[in-house]
Specification:
The complex is a heterodimer. Chain A has strands at residues 10-14, 19-24, 32-38, 45-51, 56-58, 62-67, 72-77, 86-93, 101-102, 106-111. Chain A is globular. Helix content of chain A is 0%, strand content 50%. In chain B, strands 2, 4, 5, 6, 9, 10 and 11 form a 7-stranded mixed sheet that branches. Chain B has a 4-stranded antiparallel sheet with strand order 1-3-8-7, with no helix packed on it. The relative contact order of chain B is 0.33. By secondary structure, chain B is an all-beta fold. The chains are: A mainly beta, B mainly beta.
Chain lengths: 112, 114
């Protein structure tokens, strides 16, 4: 919703530049990590996921990096566009689990 | 078009009243979920259901109730026992697979207690 973006960490990026959104997770037992995008007034939308046995996974204009040593996940968006402006959530879950734990989100603002 | 539909988009409730939020999906997904979203916080799981006539409490189930009489429908009732019900509520569904890595979300219902 519109108020979801309040009080969130915010990243401002110039249109055309690359964006890097970071996320720290806490559960060493997590096997899967997921990135969601939430535009204002809408529900989250799946972007990409990565398994714990991988360090990197690429999608269309997005790359997710996983560093299990420091429990860190990042989402890189190439050539950021105005339509990328949204709140981005990282999430984690375990194999065999239906429950997913979401982070607080990062608000990405693209400056035209 | 396949998707997940929440209604209404905006809902106002007086203190002390129960209110039910609707969630319907035509994706043939077995699993359905309710999340609550507050400013500055991530999504928190209220309830989830993996099969008809069965559901489990999430992390913040107190003051909420659900039913799963049909595969397509997973309504959420916010009862008067919920102390701080004003929030954005999101319903989601996913195929019942080994691990839930991709959930499909509805557009959300914004509940305001007046």
């Amino acid at each position: 919703g519109e108020s979801v973006g309040l009080h969130l960490p915010t990243l401002s990026v110039q249109e055309g530049d690359n964006s890097i959104i970071n996320c720290a997770y806490s559960n060493s037992a997590s096997d899967y990590f997921i990135w969601y995008k939430q535009e204002s007034g809408k529900g989250p939308q799946f972007i990409i996921d990565i398994r714990s046995n991988m360090d990197k996974r690429q999608g269309q204009r997005v790359t997710v990096l996983l560093n299990k040593t420091v429990k860190h996940l990042s989402l890189q968006i190439a050539a950021t566009q105005p339509g990328d402006s949204a709140v981005y959530f990282c999430a984690e879950t375990r194999r065999g689990y239906q429950k997913v734990t979401f982070g607080i989100g990062t608000k990405l603002q693209v400056i035209p | 078009d396949g998707g997940i539909t929440q209604s209404p988009k905006y809902l106002f409730r007086k203190e002390g009243q129960n209110v039910t939020l609707s969630c319907e999906q035509n994706l043939n997904h077995d699993a359905m979920y309710w999340y609550r979203q507050d400013p500055g916080q991530g999504l928190r799981l209220i309830y989830y259901s993996q099969i008809v006539n069965d559901f489990q409490k999430g992390d913040i189930a107190e003051g909420y109730s659900v039913s799963r009489e049909k595969k397509e429908s997973f309504p959420l009732t916010v009862t008067s026992a919920q102390k701080n019900p004003t929030a954005f509520y999101l319903c989601a569904s996913s195929p019942l697979q080994t691990t839930n890595t991709e959930a499909f979300f509805g557009q959300g219902t914004r509940l305001t207690v007046v």
